[in-house]
Design goal:
Order of helices and strands of chain A: EHEEEE
CATH topology of chain B: Thiol Ester Dehydrase, Chain A
CATH superfamily of chain B: Hotdog Thioesterase
Number of strands of chain B: 5
Radius of gyration of chain B: 17 Å
CATH architecture of chain B: Roll
Radius of gyration of chain A: 18 Å
CATH superfamily of chain A: Hotdog Thioesterase
Oligomer: heterodimer
Strand content of chain B: 35-45%
Order of helices and strands of chain B: EHHHHEEEE
Number of domains of chain B: 1
Largest interface: A-B, 54 and 53 residues
Strand content of chain A: 25-35%
CATH topology of chain A: Thiol Ester Dehydrase, Chain A
Structural class of chain A: mainly beta
Strand order of the largest sheet of chain A: 1-3-4-5-2
Number of domains of chain A: 1
Shape of chain B: elongated
Largest sheet of chain A: 5 strands, antiparallel
Number of helices of chain B: 4
Largest sheet of chain B: 5 strands, antiparallel
Helix content of chain B: 25-40%
Distance between the termini of chain A: 31 Å
CATH architecture of chain A: Roll
Structural class of chain B: alpha+beta
Strand order of the largest sheet of chain B: 1-3-4-5-2
Helix content of chain A: under 10%
CATH class of chain B: Alpha Beta
Distance between the termini of chain B: 10 Å
Amino acid sequence: MAIDKFLIEASHIMMFARSIGDDNPIYYDQDYKSDSGCEGIIAPPTFAQSSAQFDPDYFLRPKTGGEGWFGSGKEPTGLKPSSGGGGGAAAGLHAEQRFEYHLPVKAGDILTATSKPGNTWEKESKRAGKLKFSESVTEYRNQNGDLVITATGVGVQTERPVDS
Amino acid sequence: MLKVSEIKVGDTYSEILVKDLKRTQIVQYAGASGDYNPLHTDEIFTTKVAGYPSVFAHGMLTMGMTGKMVTNYVGDGTLKKYGVRFTSQVWPGDTLSSIATITDIREENGENIVELEIETTNQDGIAVITGSATARISS
């Protein structure tokens, strides 16, 4: 994954915060100042995940044009199991996610993101058969070229659906 | 914001993250995050083709909700690290609670630092997320 422009926008932060049930004014009120000294609108801790919106090749976003939307219409259809994904690791389900915060991310910032593959490993599980893990490390930099967030996602490809 | 003088190792903080998680909220998260994997929003595909009992929440939705508990405790903009493992799936109808436990308080490069262990569990007491966070705190 490579993203040239991840625009950090106030309304996107507000919508993201609403979706995780967080009504903290620091995510929508430009004039709010928090106890910890934060002011202006800041990005919530997991907001970097929504950089997918700005990834031209993101495969979990329905495409316009020829391929069209995926998911069930008249018939139950969706993505092929091999193309399921999570966490930018592009492999099955999301197993693990870690963020390191180097500098604040605020509305108005413009980030870039570059990803590289990390470790891969395998494990046997009773609930889902053979598990193949793969790691992906994404570095987010701001408009000054400074590293702001390092995100590490671990995806897992399962042999069969996970027993609940 | 947490203060060194007011906390000790072993202190805990907890919140209920969501009661009776609705499919609508999962859809809302799909829209905000951009992750439209049909396993999270398309019940027909998920049950008939993928073989799951129903759609289920994005792991990142649970991590996001858990992050709210963490920032409510440590203060806005103070996190240095936040990481989780997704240990069990979260389904519509689930009620999730999350708890942070202080595991370490130290000074590092002139900053006061707190380490937290984090666990989010469902209504059956099953952990859906386990993880940790590191934050700056004031003296």
